[in-house]
Amino acid sequence: RFYEKVQALHQDPKASVENPLLAFSLIKRLHSDWPNVIYSDEATENTQALHDGFKEVEQELPGAEDLDGAARALMRLQDVYALSVKGMANGVFQRAGTSRPPLYSPGRRVSLSADDCFHVGKVAYDMGDYYHSIAWLEEAVGLFRLSYGSWNPEDRSSLEDALDHLAFSYFMAGNISHALSLSREFLHYDPSNQRVARNVAKYKKLLEMGTAVSVAPLRRPNGTHLQSRGCHGPPPHPCPPSHTLLGPLSPQQAQGHLSHLGCSYETNGNPYLLLQPAKKEMVQIQPYVALYHDFISDAEAETIKGLAGPWLQRSVVASGEKQQKAEYRISKSAWLKDTADPVVRALEQRIAAVTGLDLRPPYAEYLQVVNYGLGGHYEPHFDHATSGKSPLYRMKSGNRIATVMIYLSAVEAGGSTAFIYANFSVPVVKNAALFWWNLRRNGDGDGDTLHAGCPVLAGDKWVANKWIHEHGQEFRRPCSADPQD
Question: What global pTM score does this model have?
Answer without folding.
Answer: 0.82
